[in-house]
Amino acid sequence: MFVDRVRVHLRAGHGGAGVVSFQKLRGRPKGKAIGGSGGKGGAVILLADPSMATLLTYKRNPHHEAGAGTHGQGDLRTGKHGDVLVLSVPLGTVVRDEDGVVIADLVESMQQVTVLEGGRGGRGNASLVSRVHRAPNFCEQGEYGEGAWFELELKLLADAALVGFPNAGKSTLISRVSAARPKIADYPFTTLEPNLGVVSVAGREFVFADIPGLIEGAADGKGLGHEFLRHVERARALVILLDPSPLQTDSLIRQHDVLIDELARHSAELAERPRVIVVNKGDLPGIAPEVRALESAIGEVVHTISAITGEGIEPLLHAVADAVDLAVRRAPEREGFVLHRPVRSGFDIHREGDVWVIEGRVAVRAVGLDDLTKPEAADYAAARLARIGVDDALREAGAKPGDEVRIGDLVFEFQDNQ
């Protein structure tokens, strides 16, 4: 089963919590802080893997989560980092976030993108020692791993794409010239998914894609037009396959004009790529005059072949290889890309009813302590909030002493200590 578009929910690993631990020492009533920090949660990475053909595995199982970091321990023992989750995807996979922004286009073998960073491990009390807090009796909680939905879309990577109406013989042709074995039958719309085959001719190789049959109106989404046309986008050259048989009511000229028009309406650049025009089923009697009329009308060489008997196949493959070479000379290899998105370091304030809500990783970190009922921990968190500007921002937004403020699951009263 060929699956080329899926939605997946991915989650980075949670960070482990720090720990409060002390070593008793003579002359130091509180002892020495020796609590270790928690390990970082695992990140989520998407990796372009040549051995992957479809996105079927993610259709069946769309939920994946990286490993969590373990908690810190006494004697300054740090928790283990969570396992990084590496998910393999086929070459040609486009990655979009929840807002539809393309964050990666993975076209090269082993190219990768980190879509989610793991949650930070909480610091143990040994790491929180300062001149003010010489023996802190609190530690940090680990951060939750971020979760989000992503869309994965596979656009096939091919040197040449076979484009034609249903039942023109595309599947028969690709099965003759390569090891691809698509389903073939004597009724229209046999092929419902693309097929790839590697073609070798006189020491030259190229990847051939059999694109399911287009129909008039495909660029407007008729049939499965948009689904099929987007696979043509990744082909360097096009092979326009025409059908002279009585089953095809349109003339060769009409077929040619409709197919080129559908390509141009989908993408003007696509219609300008190097192309080879081919009339299949050349073993049918009496088609030569129509082929000559087509050549005269379009001013291009037209190859006549028979995918069944093999007539004209080798000259066609040389022509396709030449078209691929021309496309390479015109435009260099398309490189994939990864959009590097900086982690938002600030915070936002908005009001929900009578409560001021503060969102942002830096604010959540400021209050992420193990027990805020301890006065020392509460003072430490309050100083952190003031230092990152939360107090000033609340004041400017109109908060009054006694107003409720929520950060994550924590709700407290605003105290204006200015």
Mind explaining what this structure looks like?
The protein has 418 residues and is α/β, with parallel strands linked by helices. The chain folds into three domains: 150 residues, Spo0b-associated Gtp-binding Protein, Chain: A, CATH 2.70.210.12; 173 residues, P-loop containing nucleotide triphosphate hydrolases (Rossmann fold), CATH 3.40.50.300; 66 residues, GTP-binding protein OBG, C-terminal domain (GMP Synthetase, Chain A, domain 3), CATH 3.30.300. The protein is 23% helix and 26% strand. It has ten helices and 21 strands. The strands form five sheets. A six-stranded mixed beta sheet has the order 5-1-10-7-8-17. The radius of gyration is 31 Å and the shape is elongated.
Number of domains: 3
Q: Biggest β-sheet: count, sense, barrel?
A: 6 strands, mixed
Please list the strands of the largest sheet in the order they lie side by side: 5-1-10-7-8-17
- Rg calc: 31 Å
Count of separate DSSP helical elements: 10
CATH architecture level-2 label of the largest domain: 3-Layer(aba) Sandwich
Estimated helix fraction = 10-25%
First and last CA, distance:
65 Å
The chain-level structural class is alpha/beta
Low-pLDDT sequence parts: 182-192, 217-226
Oligomer type:
single chain
User: Averaging pLDDT over every residue, what do you get?
Assistant: 86
Top-tier CATH class of the largest domain: Alpha Beta
Strand content: 25-35%
CATH homologous superfamily of the largest domain, by name?
Answer: P-loop containing nucleotide triphosphate hydrolases
Q: How many beta-strand segments?
A: 21
Briefly note the CATH topology name of the largest domain.
Answer: Rossmann fold
Query: How does the overall form come out from the CA principal axes?
Result: elongated
